[in-house]
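The authors assume throughout that readers already know how a fold can be written as discrete tokens. Each protein is reduced to its one-letter sequence and a matching series of backbone shape codes. I therefore recommend that a typical entry be quoted early in the introduction. For illustration, here is how one protein appears when written out as sequence plus structure tokens:
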Amino acid sequence: MLLAILISCKEHKSQAALIPEPKEPEIIEEFGFKLNNYKVINDTIKSGENFSEILDRHHIEYPKVLEIVNKIRDTFNVRRIKSGIPYTILAKNDSTEQAQVFIYKHSRVRYTVIDFKDSIPTAYNGRKPIRTELKTASGIIESSLSESVEEQGLSSYLTFKMADDIYAWTIDFSRLQKGDKFKLIYEQLYINDTIPVGIGEIKASYFEHGDKPFYAFKFVADSTLNISDYFDDEANNLRRQFLKMPIKFGRLSSRYNLRRRIALYGNKIRAHKGTDFAAAIGTEIMATANGIVTESRRKGGNGNYVKIRHNSTYSTQYLHMSRRAVKVGDVVKQGDIIGYIGMTGNTSGPHVCYRFWKNGVQVDPLKQKLPAAEPMKDAIKPTYFNFIKPIKDQLDIIEYSTIMNEISITEEELNS
């Protein structure tokens, strides 16, 4: 009997050892919340749908919705939610499934949290953590830069950065030659560690055009303003003081013309002292150079406009905005958003009328020999040359390819 009991105990222990211990549930955290505590509902805003309808569907009655809207209006205007934008509802994890939190996802990175689970609703903006990985790319041009970039499965943003930013004043990209080459060291951005969400900075580039080399390295030469620029391997600034146009995407629709006939004024000759760039309503308008906002107002035929003083010689003005994004006294950097394309004032279509003053006289910006940006100070150059040496070495060893380059490098390798 004793032997039978011992054998039975061993069998029970053996069977117990085979039964796996229950695992603790995985803790899932996102947007600053422990999602395990909620019923998570992901959806997309439908055409014609509004904030009140969404919350009503998730058991929030109208008086509470009105309270939420009034409390958060300084942070988030619910009337501006757009169809096609995804959102997440965090609801009670019980039979009521009543909404507690609404998360509006502006992009894969930016979001707004509207938290109404407590007595006082709150709203705040957030960004998902981004991981940055340095990558390299290269190519040999057969017909165009964009084609060479796209054939390799690379982002078209790299084409834009090279053509309209880094080398905008150095290389005429309408006259590229077959056999021209490029190399890049750039940032690939990820969320959730592995999901790509776009391109960050181009740290350095090399472009060979007509057998001539053009290096570009991003560097902060002015620590006071903390504005970075692209400089070549001899510390020359590649940027001009002014951008060519105040919008990134659009077209030149009307030139500066002192004898232009204007339909709005009975087809009479009336000097047009601006340069018009047409684009869709809401398109961002950029400051074409660093400066201080001297006017930001709405007036007569100009509609909403902003005027910027850049120095004792140059000023610029931007007319017909749908809305302005800066006020008098603001310091703006080249490329900062100062307003949005509209049709305010006297205009027959959405555009920005770009006006350009030199020594107090309005002139044609497309005919000006615009000055280069501020040169690098001699005292900074030794630091700069030490900074670019390992990066230039890394650029030089990148091999040209006709397929997507998957090489990744670390910041330590870049600066070693």
